[in-house]
Amino acid sequence: MKRKGFQQVITLFSVMAIFSDFPDIEAVRVASSQPKQRAKDSQSDLTPSGSYWQQHVATPSSSTPFESPFYSATHGLVQTHPSLSAGHPRPVPLNSNSLGPGVPVAGATSGNPSLTAGSGYLNSRGSLPNSARYPVNKITGTVVEPNPKSPFRHLDFSTSATAELRRNPALSAPDECARACREGEPPRICYYHFTLEYYTVLGAACQVCTPNATNTVWSHCQCVLADGVERGILTANRMIPGPSIQVCENDKVVIDVENHMEGMEVTIHWHGIWQRGSQYYDGVPFVTQCPIQQGNTFRYQWTGNAGTHFWHAHTGLQKLDGLYGSVVVRQPPSRDPNSHLYDFDLTTHIMLISDWLHEDAAERYPGRLAVNTGQDPESMLINGKGQFRDPNTGFMTNTPLEIFTITPGRRYRFRMINAFASVCPAQVTIEGHGMTVIATDGEPVHPVDVNTIISFSGERYDFVITADQPVGAYWIQLRGLGECGIRRAQQLAILRYARGPYQPASAPPTYDVGIPQGVILNPLDAICDRKRQDAICVSNLKNAKKIFCV
């Protein structure tokens, strides 16, 4: 019996040894097939690239696509959907047919494309300088490619922003680009990765964490609170607002937009960016590009003009469902004629206001006849936060409000962005504090002092707040006017002094009994042909820069 048991043990170990040899055998087989591929990759890596950042200079290139997970379609799409890339583990380039020179359109895969700048298909490093290539193994001379065999790129870590930043040392992370801008500083290449998908307010992530900051460049929590009413939404990186792009003037901005919205196409418009020399990335569907289909990735790249801007979806009603975010292009103080009026220009002092429905926007268009009629928003958000009182039950949600923190005696530049999708005017007033308007729509103006700002969709106003009141907390009131006044739609936020209380001492303002308006910028009565003590018209604003006629 003992002898038989001993033989069984010997047999078991023999079988294990045989199977343990299989990886070595497979490794030998794979290694024997690698020299040709390595030589091919090494040769391709030395091929000069036609780059958008190199003034669109077309240079000769190999007719074989780069074997690299970092595929840069300077003027085109990157195919990532596994069902459309069977047998091709890396992104499948689409053909180079176009609406014009360099304008990408969807189409079939080109078998032998011309890899030159301006075509619909470029090599894997066509949008970045040579210094942004993959690291090379100094012993073998081959390009190091993390996990190059995964066919499910959109489910794999290699499509994340972190992975791209690790592979390309020339790229700067979003938080590195959100910096103080200095004269003479070399520009950076700022990389962002937007993953667009269906999501929900008060989802499972909110049981684990709640976001402690807004207008951030990274997604920290993936909990979307909105105004506390649960609904389905569309998000970029599971954030509302989406990731904030904050860079310096002359920085090169690269954004990979990956569409995971089932059955929906999308484009992203960069509202306020002039797109000089990069007009193909303006994000207008069927004009500057074909929409990004589900499972596809499109690379936007541009150099932004200084000012306060924002990005939003430009297809269907997606903007109203949550696809929007801020864009701030700062410049050195020496180039800002109003820089002497403020002490701080913080990344957290962006006030992005938006209208908000409690159901998918498509449910309200063209409209209902009986229940929840019309397209007027039920609520509003300030930086994706707010509370809502049900007019039928009186129930009030208890989600947190946005809080802006300031220090006594200091002057702060705030950047207000109106991301409304409706035609409602938006009125913003701050309790106990005036606002010195110093810029509008990205352009500096001669400063004017007001107490209330009325804005419309797409408008941006930069203003300075002086922290000259007793330490405490003060209400910020956003009211919807016009059609939004029918539902009494409003939202609140808090201006808090450091080391002071988080809750204002006064009662929350209501729609009918609000914060005193004082001097209004952009009044709705349009009486602008005379000087007024109670209002300043937009037509009265004057550019702070000298305008030269050519």
Automatic annotation (TrEMBL):
Instruction: Give one GO biological process term.
Output: iron ion transport
GO function terms (MF aspect): copper ion binding; oxidoreductase activity
Concerning Gene3D superfamilies, the annotation shows: Cupredoxins - blue copper proteins (2.60.40.420)
Q: Compositional bias (Polar residues) at which positions?
A: 44-58
InterPro entries linked: Cu-oxidase-like_N (IPR011707), Cu-oxidase_2nd (IPR001117), Cu-oxidase_fam (IPR045087), Cupredoxin (IPR008972)
Annotated spans, Disordered: 32-60, 81-111
Kindly give the Pfam families that the UniProt entry links to this protein: Cu-oxidase, Cu-oxidase_3
Q: What sequence ranges are listed for the domain Plastocyanin-like? A: 223-333, 349-498
State the GO CC annotations: plasma membrane
Signal sequence annotation: 1-27
Keyword set, alphabetical order? Signal
The UniProt similarity line reads: Belongs to the multicopper oxidase family.
Official protein name in the record: Laccase-4 isoform X5
Its taxonomic path starts at: Eukaryota, Metazoa, Ecdysozoa, Arthropoda, Hexapoda
Q: Name the gene that codes for it.
A: stw
